[in-house]
Design brief:
The complex is a heterodimer of chains A (439) and B (99). With 439 residues, chain A is of the alpha/beta class. Helices cover 36% and strands 22% of the residues of chain A. Chain A has 15 helices and 18 strands. In chain A, strand 9, helix 11 and strand 10 form a beta-alpha-beta unit. In chain A, helix 2 packs across helix 3, helix 9 packs across helix 15 and helix 11 packs across helix 12. Chain A is globular, with a radius of gyration of 26 Å. Chain A starts with a helix and ends with a helix. Helices cover 25% and strands 15% of the residues of chain B. Chain B is globular. Chain B starts with a strand and ends in a 9-residue tail after the last strand. Classes of the chains: A alpha/beta (439), B alpha+beta (99). At the A-B interface, helix 1, helix 2, strand 1, helix 3 and strand 2 of A face strand 1, helix 1, strand 2, helix 3 and helix 4 of B.
């Protein structure tokens, strides 16, 4: 919008929150309602009552008027806390939150009530009465053991029936057989396997949510519960690596930025390579696996990534050619889905089972082509590259050398699904299980 | 059928599971044979979450088209839709030339 204003698109108008920003928001919502879509779900971030959220609430309020009452449905997620000393659940926060929403002109159609325990029928009746929402629209959503149970909980509460009825969507039946099978598999694993995840932000597991879920998805397929050992990269520096990693059956080094903790990650990879510990490197994880290999196997002492040491003798990871000269940090990386051609006969190709694969990327640095031959001569297997062969996308060590040492420049974790584990994570967990059984 | 719109808002506190609610509902509707798509509108001033600290917002999720929403709604997107690249984080003042 600022660019539009500078270009003069507003023809001298005073550009204001209402209508200009709200109109822009509405047009973005409308844009998703293409011919091949029946339902658009739009989540508004933040909490009702925030100052920042006001233009968004105004936009979705107007939206119902624009596209018609029968075509818009408001779901409000709220909290019903249990107060220990009083020994009861409280509806007041929900009431206040609904009052706030109404003061912006939005009457919710459904209240999804989050709580740490079940919400009784009396409580639902009370909330219904006080918030002026149909009793059928009060949905109890107590904490679930696994996030994959939530669709079943909401279904049992009649949420999808109520939504379809209100939006006058022809009433079909939700077939949840497959989903129930999945949830059963999630909760009934017969064995456990421990995977170490070495990162900078391990205190906040959400920072690696997709990686953790991708590991668990692979476990579901293999009838194993994956226990993730969160290891700070500062705890694997030097001789600490052995101590930190001796108890795990597999290792993941996920993506990351910044210098802190880099050496710890490199040391962890050395340990994995030398001790046959199944290893999967993602993005930065691949770059550090290459640095490690260059230093300790290819005789390039002091090898590093140009990102961390621009004066290193061997900059085995360097900035991509088309990234040179870019100074802005935001929105300038190689980003989104790109194809890669896999080398037949490699572990990676075998796991994917396809010659060309698409994975999502987010990076600025790459394996330097200057040292590629030297790394290959020392035994590094380039298992996949960009179609023009210029960018290294996958590396591995041969089966004779290591049971599972694989890394990719991409972020395969984003394509893993609970009912469709990603091949590389599947490979890691399978190898880790084999190691656990052997010991 | 004209596209139907469902808006999900949150009250009282953050991290209640708005994204999980939205994506779980998406999965239920999808299993009823409906074609569902999903997006998140996040009210902050960054153009996208690509440069934001994971400590504050969790992981930066990358979609097929390179748009980057944060937090749980994206990671559960497989629940609601397999149409990749439809998870978008939008802001009011983001330049239209970007998408």
């Amino acid at each position: 919008m600022l660019a539009k204003e500078r270009r003069g698109d507003y023809l001298g108008d005073t550009v204001q929150v209402i209508p200009h920003i709200t109109d822009e928001i509405k047009s973005r919502i409308q844009r998703l309602a293409t011919d091949d879509v029946d339902v658009v779900i739009t989540e508004i971030g933040g909490t009702v009552g925030d100052i920042e959220i006001l233009p968004f609430l105004e936009a979705i309020r107007q939206f119902r008027k624009d596209v018609g009452r029968d075509n818009v449905f408001y779901v409000h997620v709220t909290l019903v806390p249990f107060i220990g000393p009083a020994g009861e659940q409280k509806t007041k926060p929900t009431q206040h939150s609904v009052t706030e929403l109404r003061s912006r002109g939005i009457q919710p159609d459904v209240l999804v009530c989050r709580s740490d325990r079940a919400i009784g029928e009396d409580m639902k009746a009370k909330i219904s009465r006080l918030c002026d929402v149909d009793e059928a629209g009060i949905v109890a959503a107590p904490d679930a053991a696994s996030i994959y149970e939530i669709p079943l909980v909401l279904h049992d509460e009649g949420l999808d029936d109520y939504v379809c009825q209100s939006l006058k969507i022809e009433n079909t039946h939700a077939d949840l057989t497959e989903w129930k099978t999945l949830v059963k598999r999630v909760t009934s694993a017969q064995q456990t396997v421990r995977i170490g995840l070495v990162g900078k932000y391990v205190e906040l597991a959400d920072a690696y949510l997709s990686v953790a879920e991708a590991l668990r998805h692979a476990g579901y397929e293999l009838d194993a519960e994956v226990e993730i050992e969160w290891i700070s990269s500062e705890d694997t520096e030097g001789l600490l690596a052995e101590q930190a990693l001796s108890g795990v059956d597999g290792l993941v080094v996920p993506g990351g930025f910044g210098l802190r903790g880099i050496e710890g990650k490199v040391n962890a990879i050395t340990y994995a390579r030398e001790h046959d510990l199944p290893f999967l490197g993602l993005c930065l994880g691949l770059q550090l696996a290459v640095v490690e290999f260059a230093r300790n196997r290819a005789g390039m002492s002091g090898a590093d990534s140009a990102e961390f040491d621009d004066d290193a003798t061997y900059r085995v990871i360097d900035i991509m050619e088309d990234q040179r000269g870019i100074e802005d940090m935001g929105g300038t990386m190689r980003l989104g889905s790109y194809p890669a051609r896999l080398e037949p006969g490699t572990k990676v190709a075998e796991l994917y089972g396809e010659p060309v694969v698409y994975e999502r990327h987010r990076h600025r640095y790459e394996v330097s082509n200057k040292y590629r031959d030297r790394l290959v001569d020392a035994g590094l297997v380039i298992a996949g590259t960009s179609p023009d062969r210029k960018l290294v996308e996958f590396i591995e060590l041969s089966t004779e050398e290591h049971p599972y040492f694989v890394a990719t420049q991409a972020h395969p974790e984003f394509q893993s699904r609970p009912d469709r584990p990603h091949p590389l994570f599947y490979g890691l967990v399978r190898a880790a299980l084999a190691r656990a059984h052997a010991s | 059928m004209v596209a139907k719109h469902i808006f999900v808002t949150g009250g009282v506190v953050s991290s209640l599971g708005k994204g999980l609610t939205a994506s779980s509902l998406g999965r239920l509707l999808k299993n009823r044979g409906l074609r569902v798509t999903m997006q998140k509108l996040d009210p902050y001033i960054n153009v996208d979450p690509g440069t934001m600290n994971p400590f504050q917002h969790g992981e930066v999720f990358v979609t097929e088209d390179g748009a980057r929403p944060t937090s749980t709604s994206a990671t559960m997107s497989g629940l609601s839709t397999n149409r990749c690249g439809v998870n978008r984080t939008l802001r009011p003042d983001r330049s239209t030339s970007r998408c």
